[in-house]
Give the backbone structure.
Amino acid sequence: MVMHIVDRRLNPGSKSLENRQRFLRRAKALVQGAVKKSSQDRDIKDVLEGGEVTIPLDGMDEPRFRREGGTRDMVLPGNKKFVEGDWLPRPNQSGGKGSGAGEGDSEDAFRFVLSRDEFVDLFLDDLELPDLAKRKLAETESEGIQRAGYATSGSPANISISRTVSRALARRKALRRPRKDEIEALEEELANCDDPTRRRELQALIDALKAKAKRIPFIDPIDIRYRRFETVPKPVAQAVMFCLMDVSGSMSEHMKDLAKRFYMLLYVFLKRRYRHVEIVFIRHTDRAEEVDEETFFHGPASGGTLVSSALVAMNEIVRARFRPADWNIYAAQASDGDNMTSDSALTGQLLTDRILPVCQFFAYLEVGEAANYTFDMPDSSLWTLYERLRNDGAPLSMRKVSERGEIFPVFQDLFKRRSKQERVA
Amino acid sequence: MGSSGERLFEGADWDFHTLQRVHDACEEIARKELGLDVYPNQIEVITAEQMLDAYSSVGMPLFYKHWSFGKQFAFQEASYRKGLMGLAYEIVINSSPCISYLMEENTATMQTLVIAHAAFGHNHFFKNNYLFKQWTDADGILDYLEFAKGYISACEDRHGSEIVERTLDAAHALMSHGVDRYPGKKALDLRAEEKRAGERRQHEEAIFNDLWRTVPNTKTKSRTTLSVERRRALLGLPQENILYFLEKSAPRLQPWQRELIRIVRHIAQYFYPQSQTKVMNEGTATYVHYRIMNRLHQQGRITDGNFLEFLQSHTNVVFQPEFDDRRYSGFNPYALGFAMMQDIERIVSSPEDEDREWFPDIAGKRDVEGVLRDIWSNYRDESFISQFLSPALIRRFRMFHLHDDPAESAGIKVDAIHDERGYRRVRRELARQYDVGFVDANIEVVDVDLAGDRRLLLRHTTVKGAQLNETDARRVLQHLADLWSYDVALTEVDGTDKVLKEYVISPRAAAVAA
């Protein structure tokens, strides 16, 4: 009998992918909860690696009628010493166990591995940059193709048959190409004709028509038209995020750690979610400098504190590189809130006059010592200043953080997707 | 025995020519020596990842999409990655041609074993066993699954995936009660099924309206209350196939929802024989591969080394841990099935006096293959064990029967062991463990309150005092109520019709049915 061997190894894998996505969608709330929980006690770098999460099976279960209790009979292999009529003690009252197919209650928590993408997606789900309003044609980026009429050259796959055929028809008509039935009618007449003169005439006519038909092709290369496509630039929203971090001596290691975690998260969020987001890293002591991400996250620095220096630097960069008319500008600032008293006025002025008017959103994160509870923290000079500005209606969001575990909730809170009217407080 | 002596392969490597040679060599033995009658074979080579994929769609090459398969997949993938679970060497599908999936990681010896096991053992069983003949349509299954997949995804496009998902959830919950347990009028013809989907719908809707015309909110004066018998007859009650009942009689389901229920029901029915023949099916396949591999070795077509490799995996497959072993999780169907097949071979070819007394029909009959083929065709696990489990085998497995009555404070009673007094009882009890009619709860639709609030009445007749788990029962009944669209009541009664428990569940507001 014939046997077929089929090599399926090269078939596209992940046939289960769609089912898996459906499952994740269905379990979204649960998985998201688990992801957030598991991300709290992990390093941000590890968060990005994905990993195993455990979700309660409740709500994901597939109920079936199943029976329990009652008298049970079972046949087992491997009798060693029992004889008929022996009594065995019950194994400590755990009714369900060992009854064979009792798989139902054995998996009340469900563990599985999320891929890196799934993990981060779920983690960052529902987050977005607020008020991403200014859209402009980016110079470099063009995406999307669109039909744009017909062309005389192109790839064979793009031949427009209807257009080609109608052009051929028009040409054949214009050049009076003899039709097939015309010739056939004459041939039939010739077959039935006995008069030799008439026959000769007919034969000549047929030959002439045939020759003409041969000269005028049914479809000529000049008839062929191709569908033309054009790439169309699509408007994209350009955005820039300024990360302003205080690295002065008053910031303890713990505070720097908190700030860095916050920025790391912000960085991941922006990189994954937005293709057109530029990130500018500015760190400051009493002087501010623009640095690359490596230095920003890992480079050591120390010194006094002048918050205004960072704002000046940001302002200059905005003026030099990011025209407010074209760019959505965001800023996130992290500091312990210490600032030279003499600097307050300048800082406030810079913010109100220069920075906030061009910003869509300005988030301020105040980091505190671990021992302090957030609500106990006395309001710092910066906090007091910003609070006043906010009360005047500036688009400022402010949060205090003193524990690692708070970073994630605060971050989620700041960037939660909101309706148009709502503003982050 | 044919062209002997020529090696089929050397070492562990193989290519497609090797597979072809192996298949042909196995086929010769399977046909000439064992007299097997199989569907044409199709062997598909797949990767481990594809094997995992196949696991999560109940082993079928194509299946409709549903989140529960994704859950299954996520779970299996996690345990596979952790090394908790090995993958099967093969999956075989009851279809014509019979498709066997072989993993690419297998060595040449393993591929030979798998071909002998699946492509001949299981294949013969699928083609010849009466349950499979009666309930499954090997020619049509792949086309039907294709149809089901397309139909369900079309429904998702047309009606939204949420409602489709809810309907399927509900149908899945009732899947175990969506099979016909007794042969009906006709065997399943899935091809015609697919073709007729449309016209049948219309016809049924007509019939269906007729039925509900008796609902008394019509203006007609003469309120003909149907007699109980007439009503039950019209609705085809009592009905233990709950999905069938819903498909035909649920008042507010859309036609496409009825079709979805029908699809789930057909698939449940397709797998029904497999659940009744685990021991026999694996026993047959294992016995067949054992015979074929031994013969190949005898013919010198596989080396001693290959043969030892085979023996090692064979021994693992038929390993039966004892009840007090940590690895014990019930009888291993491979072990029990294979042992019984070999035992029958012994009884047929060289019986003892005891065997002649217990099995007068087959003892010493000499035609081993003939007797086995007959058994493979005409039994299922329950009847197979109650007929052919021999005292010798009960002794070898040292089987014993425990009786656990919760009312008995002394503990669990050892009711029978492997001795003269116990053989029959052990055998009867073991056979009952494999009786699906006994394993699934006996739940029937008994009546519908047509004149009143359209409440659907079900009855669970308990056996030996085992009642439904309440949490799960409520959830399943919730699904049932959603499909039915009116209240559903389930009564649990014991053998004397004494009511043990009553459930009444109302459909959810945003229910499945429109």
About this structure: Chain A touches chain B through 63 residues (CB under 8 Å). Chain A has 13 helices and 16 strands. The domain at 235-415 of chain A is CATH 3.40.50.410 (Rossmann fold). Confidence is low (pLDDT under 50) at residues 94-107 of chain A.
